[in-house]
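Late entry, zinc ion complex.
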Amino acid sequence: MRWLDAFLLAVCAGQTVAHTGPDESRHSLPRLAGSRRFLNTFSGKRRWQKGSGTPLVKEPEQPRGEAVEAVPKDIAVHLKDCQINYGSGCDGNQKPDGVDTSDIERPKLGDVRYGGVGIYDCVNPGDIAVTFDDGPYNYTNDLLDKFAEYGAKATFFITGTNLHKGKINDPDLPWASVIQRMAAEGHQIASHTWSHENFSQLDDTQARNQLIWNEIALNDILGYFPTYMRPPYSICPRDCQSLMADLGYHVTYFDLDTEGYLNDEEDMIQTSKDIWDDAIDGSDPCKDSYLEIEHDIHYQTVYNLTDYILQSLFDHGYRSVTVGQCLGDPPENWYRAGSGSVPEYTFAVPDPTGTSSCPTITDPSAPTSTMDVSEDGTCGDGVTCAGSSFGNCCSVNGWCGASIDYCGQNCNPDFGDCADGDSPLPGDEPLPSGPETSGGSGDPSTTTGPAPTGSLQVSIEGNCGGDVTCEGSEFGNCCSVSVSHLASAPTVLLYPIIGAIVLG
Ligand SMILES: [Zn+2]
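Prediction complete; structure with ligand written out below:
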């Protein structure tokens, strides 16, 4: 096994590595899970086998196989300005002016993981997060015009100094105003490091500087800096993963790449459109989502492919959102305050405009049956949960709720709606508290059993049951029951659900 194999296996958990002959490039493949579709994203075979792409330039010190950001010859030599280990004059060794951000506190807010092996997928069905790396560049303002025209939102992974464009916060250069415009128009701004180095070739100080220096520049421009980053070449070895956790960054990859950077000719860009179509045609916006990567440093990507993508995205019934949105992460978590504060994000996501429509969850205010709506959390015998304040699912035991314990296979469809899994709570009113018992019918006040109380110990390891409760734990407030337990013996203890519906 050559070092790169081990390296990729170590740093790209969740991906597999396609082994080719010893003299061929190696390519990583996306992990197949959930709604992920198998794509040519990482394989790169298209460009080699078909000979349609410009031969890639491999900088001598770079590992083979960083195909995710391999670029045509005319760009590769400029993607980073020079080798930072071979001269202090290299742009990557020039720290930007601005307030040092090193000592700013970095609390880890929200549910999206920090550091580690990173993020590949959106979580919200129907979302497509189109992202752009390596800019801003000469075409980026025009790209913003296009997104404004479509009412679409992008995420920009900003590189501080590359392509000999100078420092992004240089007041004599246009980049700061471009970045300010991104923010002002509701796009998300993320870090693609200061000078686009390969983290596998940096010492600890160099690696840290790649993040901190970009923070300094972005803070100088915006007054805040991002919590999302994408490693150049999609390479983030174990030390890098730890550093990102220390610095409070979400390591953001992607699950769809049209390889626009390889097809930057008018007669080649159709190949990228085909890759897009392979993924999107036949996909289901009610189930699927995509975290897509482009590069706004390529002419055909900006002036040709982007129109195609945005038109298709909306035509297929998807929403155009930022990475934070597609991960369900509130906008205030996308950034850290620096010399200024993080502004309120006031941009609404437009409804899909395509023809596709997903089955809608029953409006709780408009029950569809003539049955009475449950007022006490029970259901059955002419009483439905649909439209009740306790949740729309009626459990087989005759109780209304919104969690998987009431929905899915545990649901009685005659007296409510049955979602596949957890369904949204119709309001803020609490679900029925106390235990559910076998048989389940009857006045809930007469049921007996050990309802969780404050005397229980809050789980510190994620387990629950006995005298250990999930309520108030860092793992979520719900204590799950095993499937086998549910199926065979529905005498289960269901703790009240408060806050997020998360099975413990
Ligand atoms: Zn890049």
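The CA atoms of residues 40 and 46 lie 8 Å apart. Will revisit in the morning.
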